[in-house]
Design goal:
The protein is α+β, with helices and mostly antiparallel strands. The protein has a single domain (11-114), classed as GTP cyclohydrolase I, C-terminal domain/NADPH-dependent 7-cyano-7-deazaguanine reductase, N-terminal domain (GTP Cyclohydrolase I, domain 2, 2-Layer Sandwich). It is 19% helix and 36% strand. It is built from two helices and six strands. The chain has helices at residues 58-66, 75-90, and strands at 11-13, 23-33, 40-50, 54-56, 94-104, 107-114. The strands form two sheets. Strands 2-3-5-6 form a four-stranded antiparallel sheet, with helices on one face. A two-stranded antiparallel ribbon has the order 1-4. The longest helix is centred in the middle third of the chain and has 16 residues, at 75-90. The radius of gyration is 15 Å and the shape is globular. The N and C termini lie far apart (33 Å). The model has no long low-confidence stretch (mean pLDDT 94).
Length: 131
């Protein structure tokens, strides 16, 4: 049975709820629609977070991000909405969502929204070679 887009985010219990650790999820195939022109916008969405009691279930994140494909929304609005929805679902200690929007009209856009200062006890996330 094929999957379909959904705004319902699923979570799972954090197996290491007492430990401060960092999670990065990268979705390089995000798309939405420009509300001014109706043209598609393409982006890589990066979610970094320090989990609280729950983790974001990855397939539900995929279906959630897919649900924006036909939505007319500004880059700033969608990044902030994704952050708000993920925070509501998982209650992380800290979370940051970045949208790296591809070039259109000669301009790229990067939007980053976060819940507040990252806990000092959380490990730093480093880029792997080639990322």
């Amino acid at each position: 049975m094929p999957s379909k887009p959904s705004r319902e985010l699923q979570t799972v219990d954090n197996p290491e709820d007492g430990r401060s650790y960092s999670v990065r999820m990268v979705a390089p195939e995000f798309s939405c629609v420009c509300p001014m022109t109706g043209q598609p916008d393409f982006a890589t969405i990066v979610v970094d977070y320090v989990p609280g009691p729950r983790l974001i279930e990855l397939k539900s994140l995929k279906l959630y991000l897919w649900s924006w494909r036909e939505e007319g929304i500004f880059h700033e609005a969608v990044v902030n909405r994704v952050l708000s929805d993920l925070v509501l679902a998982a209650e992380p200690q800290w979370m940051q969502v970045s949208g790296y929007f591809k070039v259109r009209g000669g301009i790229t856009t990067t939007v980053t929204a976060a819940t507040g200062p990252k806990p000092q006890t959380a490990p730093q996330i480093f880029e792997l070679p080639g990322e």
